[in-house]
Write a structure and sequence with these properties.
271 residues; alpha/beta; Rossmann fold; four-stranded antiparallel sheet; 11 helices; 10 strands; 38% helix; 25% strand
């Protein structure tokens, strides 16, 4: 595991079943250290979003259930808590697809993130100014309806809204989805800044393996609901399997599709 600090979050061998019959996660284990950025990587349908929803206790809304294993946050079992209780403990999820309130202004969207706070208007206004410090573009668009802002601005609004809850940890689901590369880089640089300056830990689910490994400390690769590989981000970036199947790079001759399918199957069973 990463050497950043002691584990903030421990997911221990969880299984997730939808509709009582569909097994989606098959014994997933991972750790997020205090002050770390951990990437959860894999193709579409590998189980990344389900893992995040299992941690934030949002599965029941989709008829899903954690049937085995445990989830601990700061040494305490949290897999039976309500999502709102988990938010109060400092774990916030930014959902895939941004999910802004389109009819509200950007600032009103941000203020909804402070709904569970009880520390008064002054502290909330300070948090709002902090969000505008990290996202100056949002300050310019503060009175615009969120539905009329760009995809990048909506993603910034979603992350800013999470910050308004004073999180210790943010679960970030597909932050790069549908965004131009320049905006993706901008958002990940802000994630870096929040991690280093504010001490917020991140667990991010991301299909863009190259960008995620560039900014993360540690990574887990999921295939078909199982962790098939894990390691420090630098070592994963240099791993030949990862280069071949997730970064589109190859040191040797290009393999045929048949060889690649066979190799992927063999790799999965050997993992």
């Amino acid at each position: 595991m990463s050497e950043n600090g002691s584990p903030l979050l421990i997911v221990n061998n969880i299984e997730v079943i939808y509709d009582h019959v569909i097994l989606v996660l098959k014994g997933v284990s991972l750790e997020v250290p205090e002050g770390g950025i951990v990437a959860l990587l894999g193709a579409n349908g590998a189980g990344k979003s389900t893992t995040l929803k299992a941690i934030s206790n949002l599965l029941s809304a989709e008829r899903g259930d954690v049937t085995k294993g445990s989830i601990e946050y700061r040494g305490e079992r949290v897999d039976k808590l309500t999502p709102s209780d988990l938010v109060k403990k400092g774990v916030i999820q930014v959902m895939e697809g941004r999910h802004c309130f389109e009819h509200l202004t950007v600032e009103e969207n941000l203020l909804t993130g402070a709904y569970t706070r009880t520390d008064g208007a002054v502290a909330i206004n300070q948090s709002l100014e902090k969000v505008y410090h990290y996202f100056p573009r949002l300050k310019e668009r503060r009175s615009s309806q969120a539905g009329y802002t760009s995809g990048g601005e909506q993603q910034m609004t979603a992350v800013g809204r999470a910050l308004m809850a004073s999180p210790k940890m943010i679960l970030l689901d597909e932050p790069s989805m549908g965004l131009a590369p320049q905006l993706v880089e901008e958002i990940f640089e802000i994630v870096d800044a929040l991690n280093k300056k504010e001490g917020v830990s991140f667990l991010l689910a991301e299909q863009n393996t190259m960008v995620a490994l560039k900014h993360a400390d540690y990574g887990y690769i999921l295939e078909n609901g199982r962790v098939v590989m894990e390691g420090a981000a630098d070592s994963l970036s240099e791993n030949e399997d990862v280069k071949e199947f997730y970064l589109g790079l190859s040191s040797g001759a290009r393999k045929s599709f048949r060889e690649v399918k066979h190799y992927r199957r063999r790799k999965r069973w050997l993992a």
